[in-house]
User: What shape does this take?
Amino acid sequence: MTDRKEGNMANIYGYIRVSSRDQNENRQVIAFQDLCIPEKNIFMDKQSGKDFERPSYKRMVRRMKKDDLLYIKSIDRLGRNYGEILEEWRMLTKEKGIDIVVLDMPILDTRRGKDLMGAFLSDIVLQVLSFVAENERTNIRQRQAEGIAAAKARGVKFGRPALPYPDNFREIHGDWRKKKVTLRQAADACGMPVGTFYGKARKFETSI
Assistant: This one.
């Protein structure tokens, strides 16, 4: 394949995705080095694969034309939602006429699956891998929830520590409850947003 220069010559594209929690895209970049993908045709998103609302991915899909070729390192780089992966694969290969190659799974190479049996095998493998990718995502969420629950049971506190009451809080709180000042004035006097002041006031009152 060569870069599109004139006529109907096909472009080669590469798509990279890393989550916002894991910024290291080197493994995917290295996998593309020997594939002659023009630098301008490599698109990368740094966000979750829970859906396809990703700016670089959507921009790449708009550019791709029939017979273009898309490389991805693994199926979970395309996405992690089982149903959406299958629908996106169908849209790219059937509606737009794009070929896709998954480097970690050579059987998922639509260039080799043009015959009925090849397409059938690719569809089966894709469905299995898509299911595995989504199932792993579900398991990760469950393990995180179980870990948080266990930590809470041990007394571990999550979230930002509560800010201390300002020195004038008791006095301002009293004036507010006596309706000498409004809620807004009380919050301003304590140097905090209205919602924060009100929440602290409720907590303060239950601790008295």
Summary: Residues 1-7 have pLDDT under 50 and may be disordered. The chain has two domains: 12-138, 169-207. Residues 116-153 form the longest helix (38 residues). The first strand starts at residue 12 and ends at 18.
